């Protein structure tokens, strides 16, 4: 198959809608009924490369350089084991998105860890 640098051969010259190959003689625009000779379309293909940078740009994600530090939050909650009243906690979505997240508690004094749904 011949590779094409452009992609215009796939679209209507009048309205820009993607052409549909109706017969072996022509491709037709489903919107405005413009016809293009099948010889201009048959045997061509488009190829392109998507890089990680392209995906980050399209998704609006900035590239992060460096070390990322995750810190637990602190809460006034009593430890089940040693009764310390300052616990650290983090949350995580452990089940499906329509269910609540799980909260993990960690006691810095006795190192006891427990969770609540």
Automatic annotation (TrEMBL):
Entry's localization field: Nucleus, Nucleolus
Q: Which residues form a coiled coil?
A: none
Q: Which UniProt keywords apply?
A: DNA-directed RNA polymerase, Metal-binding, Nucleus, Transcription, Zinc, Zinc-finger
InterPro entries this protein is in? Rpa12/Rpb9/Rpc10/TFS (IPR012164), Zn_ribbon_RPA12_C (IPR034004), Znf_TFIIS (IPR001222)
Keyword Zinc tagged: yes
Name the CDD domains on file: Zn-ribbon_RPA12
SMART domains from the xrefs?
ZnF_C2C2
Which residue range or ranges hold the TFIIS-type domain? 75-115
For this protein, the record's Pfam families field holds: Zn_ribbon_TFIIS
Q: Main localization of the protein?
A: nucleus
Q: What does this protein do?
A: DNA-dependent RNA polymerase catalyzes the transcription of DNA into RNA using the four ribonucleoside triphosphates as substrates.
Please report which protein family the annotation says this sequence is part of. Answer: Belongs to the archaeal rpoM/eukaryotic RPA12/RPB9/RPC11 RNA polymerase family.
Q: What is this protein called?
A: DNA-directed RNA polymerase subunit
- From which source organism is this entry? Hevea brasiliensis (Para rubber tree)
Which lineage do the record's taxonomy fields give for this organism?
Answer: Eukaryota, Viridiplantae, Streptophyta, Embryophyta, Tracheophyta
